[in-house]
Amino acid sequence: MKRTLLGLVVACLLAGLVTRAQPAPAFKLGTFARDGQTFVGVVLRDAVVIDFARADAAVPAAAAKVQPPADMKDLIARYDAGVRTRIVEIVAQVEKAGTSRPSYVSDLKQVKVRPPIMYPSTMLNVAVNYREHAQEMAGGQPGATGAPPPGSPPPGTTSIAGIWERKPDDPRWNPYMFIKLPSAVIASEESITLPRGRTQIDWECELGVVISKPTRYVTAAQAGDHIFGYTMEMDVSDREARGDNRYGSDWLIAKNHDTFAPMGPFITPREFVPDPKNLPVKFTLNGAVMQDASTALMIHDVFELVSYGSNIMTLRAGDVMATGSPAGVGSARTPPIFLKDGDRTTCTYEGVGTLTNTVAGGL
Description:
20% of the residues lie in helices and 26% in strands. The chain is built from eight helices and 19 strands.
């Protein structure tokens, strides 16, 4: 009797482990257009797209159906309030159908990919968040005599009152963020347009963090619960001078020309990115590898950055934070390499996706 009871207990425990070991089929989320209509879609294997609203109408629900999201921000805001459960049901139905593809499923090439979020209310970008990038932007030099190497706190560095509390033994400089305007956002496969009269346009291939819900004053330990998922952003940068030295760097000119924020192609929910602190990164220009690194090289990781940003402003569902570029930008090369008409760029973060864009000459 005892052996039988023990066997039942073990069987139940094993069954529970098997159930927990079966995650939802991996999917990504994006915004698409077909026949002049924009829709939110679920992407499988980077190959097919499920029209969420049409699928929701066609697939029987195990429980009450949810209202299809109006856009990606709405999906993100309601993801944990039934939308995710409905997505999993629909994906299961599509996988079950096999080659008998339902009418609400299309090949990716049959739809137009739009920016996954149209458009973030707030876009925060992180400046110089990789030591190697800091060093290359300093001309490859460790710094002036007696100065700390790039990435280390300059003399006189203190905590930022109310925003960033430094630990006494923290060997890193403080985070630095700037605003990127949503008007700069374009989709994967759209063209970066070279601004008229500007000739020193550079690339920065960055991991984008998508915020899941209102986020204010969170710690780094809490930040993961406020991340919806990950995407890619190209922080295209104008390295040319502004003609005077007023107020130091001019981030408006440097970062905010139209088309200077390619984003996408999709959002990968955080459940499918188990370790955002260790993702291989690769950027290619016309097939040649220019950046080859890992998010493990970040000075401040994604959770610290979300915490930092939340101590400046309230972040909301669908806001995006680009987390900095690794080394390998064109302006730091000898001779420099800048984007030109006809170039093709790819920005890849393993497990998240690949953002591809062409470059077009200015008007």
